[in-house]
Amino acid sequence: MAESIARGVVRSGVLPASGIICTSHFNPSRREVIESFGVKVLPRNDDRVMVIFFVKPQVVKNVVLQLKPQLSKKKLLVSIAAGVKLKDLQEWADNNRFIRVMPNTPSAVGEAESVFHFQQGGAVTEPDGDLIAKLFGSVGKIWKADEKLFDAITGLSGSGPTYIFFPIEALADGGVAAGLPRELALGLASQTVLGAASMVTKTGKHPGQLKDDVTSPGGTTIAGIHELEKGGFHGTLMNAVVATAKCSHELS
Is 60 within 8 Å of 93 (Cβ atoms)? Predict the structure, then answer.
């Protein structure tokens, strides 16, 4: 995720690569990738005005505690760790100037959905919030939401792109099974999902209405929808979101 956000921010021009430092990255292959677009990798945190914790929820406490002596009240702190509550982050850092953000991997191509939250009236200022909105908004869309919604947000948009890789792959496999070359099938499947998503966001119509608009009685599309319904496609995706949200809650 750190790579996706950093790459997207550099590409968008909001920050130059020289303005970003990655610390404690011990995987040589990942280090090479991050350095490939100009971001420096250092053994420890330097005196930056903002620190973003791009770490797994299982280790974020230890990382924050290790860096605690360097986390002065002058620094804006940001966590993307799923399921880890703001009050715990603030306690571990002994710093209330903390913001939670839930981004996702499409930030690498400028199509992220990020949601952020901070405690109103606390150490975090409105300009701090504006900075985070600008930073993460540079790699996609940004929303502000109450922290109680973050487990559900993690289940839907945080993990959601990975869910969508499955139907893209399945659509491509179906195209191959129907006689298409693999490259053409994958290209058509990917563009189909992209185009359908764009129709939802740009027309403002409910997905169900868009579905009904092109589903003719006795036609080819309703035959395919019938197979999806028999396979429990709709319910399976719903269950995936709920299961991930539950897992996020259990991490807190």
Answer: no
pTM: 0.85
**Single-letter amino acid, residue 18:** S
Tell me what pLDDT residue 208 has. Answer: 96
Strand partners, 52: 78
The total of other beta-carbon atoms located within 10 Å of residue 187's CB is 14
What is the separation, in whole angstroms, between the first and last Cα of the chain?
20
Q: Does residue 22 contact residue 2 with C-beta atoms inside 8 Å?
A: yes
Q: What is the DSSP string of the chain?
A: -HHHHHHHHHHHTSS-GGG-EEE----HHHHHHHHHTT-EEESS--S-SEEEE---TTTHHHHHHHHGGG--TTSEEEE--TT--HHHHHHHHT---EEEEE--GGGGGT-EEEEEE--TTSSS-HHHHHHHHHHHHTTEEEEE--GGGHHHHIIIIISHHHHHHHHHHHHHHHHHHTT--HHHHHHHHHHHHHHHHHHHHHH---HHHHHHHT--TT-HHHHHHHHHHHTTHHHHHHHHHHHHHHHHHHH-
Question: What are the pLDDT digits (tens) for 9-56?
Answer: 787 787 787 778 777 656 677 777 777 777 777 766 556 688 889 888
Mean pLDDT of 96-100: 96
